[in-house]
Amino acid sequence: MVAANSINTVVLGDEDSTKRQQILAGASKVFMDLGFDGASMGEIARAAGVSKGTLYVYFADKNRLFEAIVEQEMLDQQKIAFNFDPGRDVPTTLREFGQAYIELLCRPGGGSAIRTVMAIAERMPEVGRRYYEQSLEKTINRFAAYLEMHVQASELAIPDCQLAASQFMQMCQASLFLRFIFQASPPPSSARIAEVVESATRMFLAAYQVKAG
Amino acid sequence: MVAANSINTVVLGDEDSTKRQQILAGASKVFMDLGFDGASMGEIARAAGVSKGTLYVYFADKNRLFEAIVEQEMLDQQKIAFNFDPGRDVPTTLREFGQAYIELLCRPGGGSAIRTVMAIAERMPEVGRRYYEQSLEKTINRFAAYLEMHVQASELAIPDCQLAASQFMQMCQASLFLRFIFQASPPPSSARIAEVVESATRMFLAAYQVKAG
Amino acid sequence: MVAANSINTVVLGDEDSTKRQQILAGASKVFMDLGFDGASMGEIARAAGVSKGTLYVYFADKNRLFEAIVEQEMLDQQKIAFNFDPGRDVPTTLREFGQAYIELLCRPGGGSAIRTVMAIAERMPEVGRRYYEQSLEKTINRFAAYLEMHVQASELAIPDCQLAASQFMQMCQASLFLRFIFQASPPPSSARIAEVVESATRMFLAAYQVKAG
Amino acid sequence: MVAANSINTVVLGDEDSTKRQQILAGASKVFMDLGFDGASMGEIARAAGVSKGTLYVYFADKNRLFEAIVEQEMLDQQKIAFNFDPGRDVPTTLREFGQAYIELLCRPGGGSAIRTVMAIAERMPEVGRRYYEQSLEKTINRFAAYLEMHVQASELAIPDCQLAASQFMQMCQASLFLRFIFQASPPPSSARIAEVVESATRMFLAAYQVKAG
DNA sequence: TATGAATGAGACTTCATTCAT
DNA sequence: AATGAATGAAGTCTCATTCAT
Question: In terms of residue numbers, what domain contains C158?
Answer without folding.
Answer: 75-208
